[in-house]
Design goal:
The structure is a homodimer. The first copy, chain A, is an alpha/beta fold. Chain A is about 40% helix and about 15% strand. In chain A, the strands form 3 sheets. An 8-stranded mixed sheet of chain A has the order 2-9-8-7-6-3-4-5, sandwiched between helices. In chain A, strands 10-11-14-13 form a 4-stranded antiparallel sheet. A two-stranded parallel sheet of chain A has the order 1-12. In chain A, a hairpin with a 2-residue loop joins strand 4 and strand 5. Chain A is globular and about 60 Å long.
């Protein structure tokens, strides 16, 4: 490379690119024995053979359509499947024209953020929240106003105070980003009262809610509550969903469900010749026939792993002031470390025990969270969730400052 | 929908979203008998059975990796295949670390545009150029400075004048977007002299070149010239490629090849949990074994269709001042209508004859192009390329103002 003539491209970066380069994930890291870090599904739950069979049926029935450009809003069969899924699990009635498909829900969420957020715009977001979305929000240069989460979900009193403070400054909140079911990482499901209150606030302050619900179908117990989208009735909610957790992240299929007039604006940031015509059809041909029993099997699988990990951690909770969430579904436990835990000592001890977790701080938009860790019970088999939980409990006990 | 409370979301749109909603493609339009509009591959060239077989091999060998989250830069096997393809067809030596995968080359190009273009920034672009990229450029709010294309490709004299005018205004050009091989729509392949000159200009004016090469492997005759990326040696060129034309657009796999320090900035706009782990592996498992003969088969297929359409149009060229391109590869003919053609009359006559084409005007960033039409010979079988060419020639002759 003739660096002598290399153009200093950094001088040419856009405002959003100047926020910084993407973090490069460490590669070649040794696989831990107990990996509770990322929200990865259990490989034992993937329908390998059924997807080969679905691929063959796709090629037979509509191979040419699967291999050429697609509808910019996504394969109609997938948008119909999303509608069917909402009807089946939630009694929610949406139409194909409310749904735009994207390459996973991270990409879907970015369509909404790009549509509404300029550098410096105000956005309200839970603390803690999902670190992946936080990266996308940061990339857009948003001014992130955080609000707490408690056992009933987002603190709507704090939301109100944020909105009123913005109004006093003559500013608008562009989006309120929230998770409603089995909050990642904190665990709670937003109460019905809070759901209604959040919508009232958004409507009163003329702002939009970005409702993320990646895990809602993986419910272990309790009854589902109506989504913000269902309660709002087309006024101010954009809802994101995904096949990552009920089929597999590798197909990269997520979507937004939004008021129809918004869809063409969201589509404007989908720079692709139609999202995954091939993968969409393979996914739909499988799920059309197998969704109910597949989701039921997965819910049972993950419930057993949540319980196994809680058993493993039980010793920790006796005799310390540690707390751990018990979510009604999803992939994660949220553990508050005992007072006086030395986080860097814990990191060393956990590494020595081959246990990996996510430090709570990465879930906080504006600092804090050192006293928490997130544990994904989704990936490892149940036995390892329990054994790894025990090892981690011991490490935490040994990591007193 | 309770429109009474609907939030006026248009007041909340970002600057780029305010540019306007995406155009909704007409759906349910009757399929014409002779479709020469979009750059769609011939369905007869898709390897249906081989992709079923590749899917089975992927599931067997690395199913769990295919169905979970992937490397943010894309599947290493695909990035290696891109390197192998460049070596094989062009003698170009790049490393996996220079390659970032995206959901088709449209998405790949958008990563570069997002990384360097803010609303109002200057960007140089050929007139005519590919309408799909033009949409992405417009979405970013660029100030598009157009330059002509002639038989040797981009007019580097015009590029120089644009760059000098910008310098006088104290402005920088952020990107020069250009197509080097079998230009879509105009047809020419950029001469070696022009390639070298374009790089000199970019380096001298400290700007970047975005080199789009979607069709380069589908060469019917003549020898390939070194790419801008190869000639530049890591200074200022970002090169986009795709599997859409040599495998199928439905897998949505494209990439950028760029100087390594730029990659993390480009990655910052890839809002997805790794691009298509499933589709990437299926594509690679097929191409790893079959690329050479598959690309040779396709080149022969498209050459025969180019020739068939040129035969069909031959009558038009005798006795009128119409001209038509004869590209050395790719998917398109570019036809200059005889002086005095009534474009709206031609549109009516072509529709009556069940012939569809792309009006030249959509390829022009800043107006003009009414005297041109683009014809894709890629999709229809050779017989229909010839017959449709004859019908279109008759329609053009009848559409004199």
């Amino acid at each position: 490379v003739s660096t002598a003539t290399a153009v200093r491209f950094r001088d040419l970066l856009s405002q959003r690119a100047s926020i910084g380069p993407a973090a490069r994930l460490a590669s070649g890291v040794q696989t831990p024995l107990y990996d509770f870090s990322g929200g990865r599904p259990d490989p034992a739950g993937y329908p390998y053979a059924a997807l080969i069979e679905a691929t063959a049926r796709v090629m037979e029935a509509e191979g040419a359509d699967a291999l050429t450009y697609g509808d910019p809003l996504g394969y109609a069969g997938l948008r119909d499947l999303v509608c069917q899924k909402y009807r089946l699990y939630e009694g929610l009635d949406v139409r194909r024209d409310n749904v735009i498909v994207a390459n996973g829900s991270g990409h879907a969420l970015s369509l909404a953020i790009s549509s509404f957020v300029d550098v410096g715009d105000a956005l309200i977001c839970e603390a803690p929240t999902f670190g992946g979305t936080l990266n996308a929000i940061r990339r857009h240069g948003a001014d992130i106003l955080d609000v707490p989460v408690d056992d009933d979900g987002i603190d709507t009193g704090a939301v109100q105070r944020r909105l009123e403070a913005l109004a006093r400054e003559g500013r608008r909140c562009k989006l309120i980003y929230t998770q409603v079911n089995f909050h990642n990482p904190a665990g709670p499901t937003m109460s019905l009262r809070r759901r209604k209150r959040l919508i009232e606030l958004a409507q009163a302050h003329e702002t939009l809610i970005l409702e993320d619900d990646a895990y809602g179908d993986l419910r272990f117990e309790g009854d589902p509550l109506p989504s913000l989208y269902a309660l709002d009735d087309g006024a101010c909610v954009i809802r994101a969903g995904t096949l990552s957790k009920i089929l597999g992240p590798g197909v990269r299929l997520g979507w937004l469900c939004a008021p129809e007039p918004m869809i063409p604006f969201l589509q404007g940031f989908n720079f692709s010749g139609g999202v995954s015509p091939f993968a969409s059809r393979v996914a739909v041909y499988f799920l059309r026939d197998h969704m109910t029993e597949h989701v039921a099997m997965l819910s049972e699988l993950y419930r057993s792993k949540r319980d196994a990990m809680l058993r493993g951690l039980a010793a920790l909770l006796q005799g310390t002031d540690a707390t751990v969430s018990r979510p009604e579904g999803g992939f994660f436990l949220w553990l508050k470390l005992p007072a006086g835990t030395d986080c860097s000592k814990l990191a060393q001890l956990a590494e020595a025990a081959s246990v990996r977790y996510v430090p709570g701080a990465v879930c906080y938009p504006n600092g804090g969270g050192d006293e928490y860790i997130r544990l994904a019970f989704s990936y490892e088999p149940a036995e390892r969730c329990e054994a790894g939980g025990r090892l981690l409990a011991a490490a935490i006990r040994a990591a007193r400052a």
